[in-house]
Amino acid sequence: MSRDNYIPRFSFEITSEQKERADRLLETYGLRRALFSIILDDVLDLIEDYGGVAIGMIISGKIKPRKVLPSLHKVNFMEEKDG
Fold first, then answer.
1. CA–CA distance from 42 to each of 10, 66, 73 (Å)?
2. Long-range CB contacts (< 8 A, 24+ apart) of 63-71?
3. Do the beta carbons of residue 55 and residue 63 sit within 8 Å?
4. pLDDT per residue over 18-58, tens digit each?
5. pTM for the structure as a whole
6. Other C-beta atoms lying within 10 Å of the C-beta of residue 57
């Protein structure tokens, strides 16, 4: 593959259960990339602003991503508003 055709990828292992859920819930072509590109930008912004503290809080479960990621916070706000 020539350097002009190079497309960066972000890859990691997921569980079988996560794959089954993703296949069921995100079946529309291109939806995964669109969705996770936005979430990745939010995560990287948090890490840029708060460093390892942000990583530690999310990984430890002390804070839910939907509470701090701008792309997910509006969904959480909508749930609280309707509930």
1. 15, 11, 11
2. 65/39, 69/39, 69/42, 69/43, 70/42, 71/38, 71/39, 71/41, 71/42
3. no
4. 999 999 999 999 999 999 999 999 999 999 999 999 999 99
5. 0.75
6. 17
